[in-house]
Amino acid sequence: MFQRLILEDSAALFTLAAFITAASIFVSITWRAVRMNRAQTEKFENLPFDTETPAASATETERPTFNA
């Protein structure tokens, strides 16, 4: 009855393949980050703060009221 549900060998193979894939992605990202030159590192470390954000006015921070 349960002959089609025995997938232990293939489940272990798929788990190992998924682990190797994930590990290779993380290792490649780490390798690229380690080998990055200094100018590119300084560019990336200040990236979120490169553009100025406008200050919020008092009317923008108030919550709108809805009459139901």
Largest sheet: none
Uncertain segments: none
Helix % is 55-70%
> How much is the radius of gyration in Å?
26 Å
Report how far apart the termini are.
60 Å
Shape: flat
Average of per-residue pLDDT values: 78
Q: Can you write the helix and strand succession as a string?
A: HHH
Helical segment count: 3
* Derived structural class: mainly alpha
Describe it for me?
The protein has 68 residues and is mostly helical. Helix content is 57%, strand content 0%. The chain is flat, with a radius of gyration of 26 Å. The chain starts with 7 loop residues before the first helix and ends in a 7-residue tail after the last helix. The mean pLDDT is 78.
Describe, in short, the structure shown.
The chain has three helices and no strands. It is mainly alpha-helical and 68 residues long.
